[in-house]
Amino acid sequence: MGYSLWLLPPTNSKIATSLISAIKSLGCSFAPHVTLTSKIPLSMPVENIKSSLNTYFAKNSLPDVHINTLDTGSEFFKRIFLRCQKTDSLVSLARFSKQTFVGNIEDIDNWTNNYDPHISLIYAEKQDCDDKELIDRLDTSTLIDKTWQGGKIQLVDTSGILSEWKTVLEFDIPNST
Questions:
Q1: Which H or E element spans position 77?
Q2: Mind listing the domains of the chain with CATH numbers?
Q3: How many CA atoms lie within 13 A of 131 on its CB side?
Q4: Cα(2)–Cα(46) distance, integer angstroms
Q5: Which of 49, 135, 61, 140 has the alpha carbon at shortest distance from 100?
Q6: Cβ distance 3 to 42 under 8 Å?
Q7: Cα–Cα distance for residue pair 22/73, rounded to 1 Å
Q8: C-alpha distances in Å from residue 54, one per residue of 20, 93, 97, 102, 153
Q9: Is pTM beyond 0.85 here?
Q10: With a cut of 70, which residues of the chain have pLDDT below it?
Q11: pLDDT tens across 59-100, in order?
């Protein structure tokens, strides 16, 4: 699969604490994040990715993340998740990331229209539990209608199975709140 580029909330923010708690309550241990893009070739130099992102943030507004609703689905990454608003700043960062690091996007407008920003709380690999019981464990008042601006970026090697994923780059976006 390659690298995935994730947007995380600011480290010591209330929303980061709430998201980490929700994910742990469901028996998972991944970082709370909105995936900006995936399938970045492992051959792409990490320093090039960092440099490109720093240039982007020097010229563009911080990404705004607005959590709208709790939802469930049948896709691996969307078993129980928080749907996020497609803010202009978030879509701009995702589109830049897709074009710059994955490339060969014949129809970037179609990709942008289909971009579905979300924060997974549990992946479909956990089969031994009922979704309703899991949802009942969550305090949605600490998750729904919450926002953050900026945060941090993680580049994660997602080429193996979930337990083998590893962060290869992490940096705080300047001026995050």
A1: none
A2: 3-172 (3.90.1140.10)
A3: 14
A4: 12
A5: 49
A6: yes
A7: 17
A8: 26, 12, 12, 17, 11
A9: yes
A10: 104-105, 125-129, 177
A11: 999 999 999 999 988 887 888 999 999 999 999 999 999 999
